[in-house]
Design goal:
heterodimer; A: 300 residues; Rossmann fold; four-stranded parallel β-sheet; B: 254 residues; mainly alpha; globular
Chain lengths: 300, 254
């Protein structure tokens, strides 16, 4: 009996907690959590479901994920099926009507940018293709502005008392971002036309932004591990071209790119794909600065 | 976050899923241990997955009823194969189970190599996570578990032979989708292991299972750790504790 009482007391203690005063943002990816912090300042508390070192395609179910979505005022994800393996389950379990798709409390960033690689027809033979287009939109910093405008609007909607502050933060971010973009754009000139090989086809937006040329991918089709024949073809391709780097994200296995690097002498390069993915990429500005730093280090 | 995490509407379905899985896996696990075919669940789960992948390779829809049927059919065929092996290759049964496991796993890789759409998703289609469980996935599991338990208790000699393999295939196909491979293995083996010398073995085994799931969910809530993995460790901890708490007489018989 005493054990039952003690357990009940424990549960009661665990069940009591302060109510959230801040606008609670649940972001699927670290870049949207960072953007929410830029645009919401002290009025907003943002957490991300994954860190920059984890693969957003798959996550382990933790109790706090469900609890956070349940209490969230705004859920911000990339969308375009990037989180298809777990977000629908999470939203269903959390059972929070405010943040279901279609509600003002659910923001899919991909809805506000022009997607690349939208397939003409979804053919299963073509690999792990996303039917809505390539979802890795955050590798082009220009895509963050329309998302920022939309997110700020949602904040004003959810928390009208802070409208003036949100306007101010948005204007500040817009100015700083535009200024940074101009600086980055100047550096991009040197990189235009540079050929790269990638591990997974998640850099198309960066390529479009910087004018990089994608020579090949370690995965023959997105999500499919390399086969011997594909690697041989890739080595062949390299010998007749001049790629400068083999690019991967921090969460991807180093082995395929190190293997190819060892064979071809082309440096393997980890590029930041989001906040917290590499040393020093502590905010959104640093992500693209380091991306350019690293690309320049291998450029001619 | 701790306070919000310990919410019955989050953990309720998980606890129910755990109890449903335990209801069949505790008796089946004791039989698995008695027969010395520890890794049969991994092989059966992998074959069930192969069935779904084969369905996809033929271009059929892999969600819903078709996937379930494919999984059950594949798992049952695998069970028949293993039953045959027990009859005719009893000495090498454990080795055959291991071989079946790697063949099913690599067979899936080969099938997916030519048909990669949603490859990662397909591989995970039959692997559940206990926190994602909801009511409408629990209901079929309740009926199937009830059927398995009834068949197990009234089946007589049949369930000590071919029947065991078929009921096992059915249970594991369901439970892997609810709670995942690791928890299925732990739910089968750990309670059975802790209770193998106990006088009231089945009761002891159910106690280990229940304590493991309950404490695992609690620890997962308080420290916000991945729920399935924590429960596996709690099941192991309770298995050790119960083993030591049992009268030493039973230990000396080992």
């Amino acid at each position: 009996m005493r054990i039952i009482l003690a357990t009940l007391a424990l549960f009661a203690w665990l069940g009591s907690g302060p109510a959230f005063a801040k606008v609670s943002v649940f972001a699927c990816e670290p870049e949207w959590a960072a953007l929410a912090t830029e645009l919401g300042g002290d009025r907003v508390e943002a957490v991300a479901a994954v860190t920059g070192l984890q693969d957003v395609h798959f996550i382990q179910a933790r109790p706090s994920l469900i609890a956070r979505v349940r209490n969230a005022d705004l859920v911000v994800c990339t969308g375009a099926d990037l989180e298809i393996a777990w977000l629908p389950l999470l939203l269903r379990q959390a059972n929070n009507p405010r943040v279901q798709p279609g509600q003002p409390g659910f923001l899919a960033a991909a809805d506000y940018v022009a997607l690349l690689e939208i397939p003409v027809s979804v053919d299963r033979a073509a690999g792990d293709i996303h039917p809505y287009g390539n979802p890795h939109i955050q590798t082009d910093p220009r895509n963050l502005l329309p998302v920022a405008e939309e997110m700020s609007g949602r904040f004003r909607n959810i928390d009208p008392d802070g409208a003036a502050e949100y306007e101010k933060l948005l204007a500040s971010f817009r100015d700083r971002w535009q200024q940074a973009l101009e600086g980055w754009q100047q550096r991009a000139g040197r990189l235009a036309g540079m050929q790269i090989i990638v591990h997974h086809n998640s850099w198309v937006y960066m390529n479009a932004w910087l004018g990089l040329e994608l020579l090949g991918s370690l995965e023959p089709k997105p999500g499919v591990p390399p086969s011997a024949g594909h690697l041989a073809a890739l080595l062949d391709e390299i010998s007749t071209h001049e790629p400068r780097a083999i690019v991967r994200s921090a969460y991807q296995s180093a082995r395929p790119s190190e293997w190819l690097s060892g064979r071809s002498g082309i440096p393997a390069l980890v590029l930041p794909h989001t906040v917290g993915s590499v040393e020093g990429a502590d905010d959104l500005f640093a992500v693209y600065r380091i991306m350019l730093d690293r690309l320049e280090s291998v450029a001619k | 976050m701790m306070s919000a995490a310990l919410d019955w509407s989050i953990f309720g379905p998980a606890i129910l899923a755990g109890l449903i899985v335990l209801s069949t896996h505790v008796p089946l696990g004791r039989e698995v241990l008695r027969r010395g075919i520890i890794f049969i669940d991994l092989a059966v789960a992998q074959i069930a997955g192969l069935g779904v992948i084969a369905t996809a390779a033929m271009g059929w829809d892999v969600h819903g009823v078709a996937a379930q049927l494919a999984a059950f059919v594949a798992a049952s065929l695998g069970a028949l194969l293993l039953y045959g092996c027990e009859k005719w290759y009893k000495q090498s049964l454990e080795a055959v189970i291991g071989v079946v496991f790697v063949l099913a796993a690599t067979g899936g890789i080969l099938l997916l190599a030519n048909n990669p759409r949603g490859g990662e998703e397909l591989k995970d289609l039959l692997v559940g996570q206990i926190l994602w469980v909801d009511a409408h996935t629990l209901l079929p599991a309740v009926f199937i578990s009830a059927f398995v338990l009834i068949a197990w208790s009234v089946g007589g000699r049949w369930v000590r032979g071919l029947g065991f393999y078929l009921l096992f295939a059915l249970s594991v196909t369901v439970s892997v989708q609810l709670v995942g491979v690791f928890l299925v293995f732990a739910s089968l083996i750990l309670p059975a292991l802790a209770s193998r010398h106990a006088r009231r073995g089945l009761t002891v085994a159910y106690a280990v299972g229940g304590l493991g799931y309950a404490s695992g969910l609690l620890v997962s809530a308080v420290f916000d750790l991945p729920t399935g993995a924590v429960i596996v460790w709690c099941l192991a901890a309770w298995a050790v504790i119960i083993e030591f708490m049992l009268p030493s007489k039973s230990l000396s018989e080992v």
